[in-house]
């Protein structure tokens, strides 16, 4: 893949290519935006463009040894760091390893690039150590941070990074991509695009990894727990990202019920694969102003919980608050 093959993010790509052309890259960038939106893809592509042996019109050739190795995560001058487990954080030892690697001379004679995935999960010690490195980075050294919840990062660290906001590519564009590149039927492509909220990476996860079944399993588990008044559910012991994702799906369920209650069109529903279930639940009780108000309260509480988890609140406590309302 090269910049020209990335769906959406035109403004971000123009910015990066413009700075590359003028040799005016910042020392560090922070790519922000919802999960599954393409932040990591942009970071990897920027690294490939810097290391490419035969760049074409300011983009990577996507075929030389450097491009192929960066794509597979095996290029020595591009160091990737991520939480070591779903429930883990990016720790001080990982950052020290990154900093030591970035301080070495580039083997290719070009750049040293460090990419930190889920940088919003840096421990306090790791963030402090990273800040010291960013204050005086070596020459031709680029740091790329990726974060869905940048508000969790220390302000001192945020101030050292050029922030790049990534936004959803849009439902129609994602659906078109799925039809053209993944050869899906129109209805299936639109369902996945809608379910992902216009986030291509998430739509591809649902398609390629079969995550629609996982989504429905988690959703049914949470809905059953709430109906039965059970606050201790297996998901409550899962990692932060898993719980946050589950709360997002729960919020979308209540949002869909509210949309249909207000006479919204079926195509406006996010859980397109569960449309019949939503309509069945809605038909089981009369639509009243009080019911709509309760659904709105549920949606607001779920989004509050999601934001609280992003701000480092306990996932179990946030989830219990949603299930107990």
How would you describe what is shown here?
This protein is α/β, with parallel strands linked by helices. The protein has three domains: 163 residues, 3-Layer(aba) Sandwich (Rossmann fold), CATH 3.40.50.300; 41 residues; 114 residues. It has 14 helices and five strands. A five-stranded parallel β-sheet has the order 2-3-4-1-5, sandwiched between helices. Helix 2 packs antiparallel against helix 3 and helix 11 runs parallel beside helix 14. The model has no long low-confidence stretch (mean pLDDT 86).
Write the layout of secondary structure elements.
Elements: H1 10-21, E1 28-32, H2 39-51, H3 65-72, E2 78-81, H4 92-103, E3 112-116, H5 124-135, E4 141-147, H6 155-158, E5 162-165, H7 171-181, H8 186-195, H9 200-208, H10 211-228, H11 240-261, H12 275-283, H13 289-310, H14 315-323
Helix pairs in contact: 2-3, 4-5, 7-8, 8-9, 10-11, 11-12, 11-13, 11-14, 13-14
Biggest sheet: strand arrangement: 2-3-4-1-5
Q: What structural category do the secondary elements indicate?
A: alpha/beta
Percent of residues in helices = 40-55%
Q: Characterize the overall form.
A: globular
Question: How does the major sheet shape up?
Answer: 5 strands, parallel
CATH level-4 homologous superfamily of the largest domain: P-loop containing nucleotide triphosphate hydrolases
Instruction: Write down the domain tally.
Output: 3
Give me the number of helical elements: 14
Mean pLDDT: 86
Q: Quote the distance from N terminus to C terminus.
A: 46 Å
**Which percent range describes the beta-strand content?**
5-15%
**Which fold name fills CATH's third level, the topology of the largest domain?**
Rossmann fold
- Write the H/E string, N to C: HEHHEHEHEHEHHHHHHHH
């Amino acid at each position: 893949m090269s910049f020209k093959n990335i769906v959406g993010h035109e403004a971000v790509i123009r910015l990066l290519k413009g700075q590359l052309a003028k040799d005016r890259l910042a020392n560090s960038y922070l790519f922000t935006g919802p999960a599954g939106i393409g932040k990591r893809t942009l970071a990897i592509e920027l690294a490939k463009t810097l290391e490419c042996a035969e760049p074409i019109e300011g983009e990577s050739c996507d075929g030389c040894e450097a491009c192929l190795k960066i794509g597979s995560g095996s290029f020595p001058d591009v160091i990737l760091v991520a939480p070591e487990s779903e429930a883990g954080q990016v720790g001080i030892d990982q950052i020290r390893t990154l900093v030591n690697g970035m301080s070495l001379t580039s083997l290719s004679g070009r750049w040293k690039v460090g990419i930190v995935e889920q940088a919003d999960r840096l421990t306090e010690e790791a963030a402090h150590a990273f800040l010291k490195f960013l204050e005086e980075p070596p020459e031709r050294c680029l740091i790329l941070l990726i974060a869905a919840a940048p508000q969790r990062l220390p302000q001192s660290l945020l101030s050292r990074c050029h922030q790049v906001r990534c936004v959803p590519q849009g439902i129609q564009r994602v659906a078109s991509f799925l039809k053209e590149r993944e050869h899906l039927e129109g209805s299936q492509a639109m369902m996945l695009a809608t379910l992902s909220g216009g986030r291509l990476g998430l739509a591809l996860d649902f398609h390629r990894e079969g995550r629609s079944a996982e989504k429905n399993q988690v959703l049914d588990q949470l809905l059953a727990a709430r109906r039965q008044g059970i606050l201790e559910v297996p998901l409550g012991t899962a990692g932060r990202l898993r719980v946050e994702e589950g709360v997002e799906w729960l919020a979308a369920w209540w949002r869909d019920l509210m949309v249909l209650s207000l006479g919204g069109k079926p195509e406006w529903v996010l859980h397109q694969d569960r449309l019949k279930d939503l309509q069945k639940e809605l038909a089981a009780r009369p639509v009243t102003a009080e019911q709509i108000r309760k659904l709105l309260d549920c949606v607001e509480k779920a989004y509050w919980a999601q934001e609280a988890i992003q701000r480092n609140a306990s996932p179990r406590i946030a989830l219990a608050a949603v299930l107990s309302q």
